[in-house]
Specification:
mainly alpha, about 90% helix
């Protein structure tokens, strides 16, 4: 499967390079076409690969689920995970004072907001530079 992924990526890259080298269109037109067509190809390939992975995972799970020991093991792991999570929550509440928990929550929320703001700024910057690149006059 990974060999197929490498082949697909290599094919996309090779096609893009050859397309640029032999393109009959101007640079701006070619770049726009590559952005559009390349992204569509990457999206389709990623979706197809995701579908394949999902199908394979479902098939493997169905086969494994036929085994009684596997099902019992899955249940034990779920139970242990739930107990560990509940224990961690209980310890956190017992050992970390309420005042500190509030500070932690406040800091976490501020950090999340900052990261989201940074991601928004990065998206704006990419969009702005992309628009500038499209508007540059073609050098002859």
């Amino acid at each position: 499967m990974f060999r197929t992924l490498k082949s697909i990526i290599a094919g996309i890259f090779t096609g893009a390079v050859l397309g640029v080298l032999f393109a009959p269109k101007k640079g701006v037109e070619t770049r726009n076409a590559i952005k559009k067509d390349g992204m569509n190809a990457v999206k389709k390939t990623a979706k197809d690969m995701g579908d394949d992975i999902s199908d394979t995972a479902q098939d493997v799970y169905k086969e494994l689920n036929k085994n009684e020991d596997f099902r019992k093991g899955v249940e034990k792991v779920k139970e242990a995970s739930n107990k560990a999570q509940a224990g961690a929550k209980k310890l956190y509440k017992e050992k970390v004072p309420l005042k500190d928990r509030r500070k932690i929550k406040k800091t976490f929320n501020k950090t999340r907001a900052s990261v989201e703001k940074g991601l928004d700024k990065a998206a704006e910057t990419v969009t702005r530079f992309s628009k500038k690149d499209d508007k540059k006059p073609e050098k002859k």
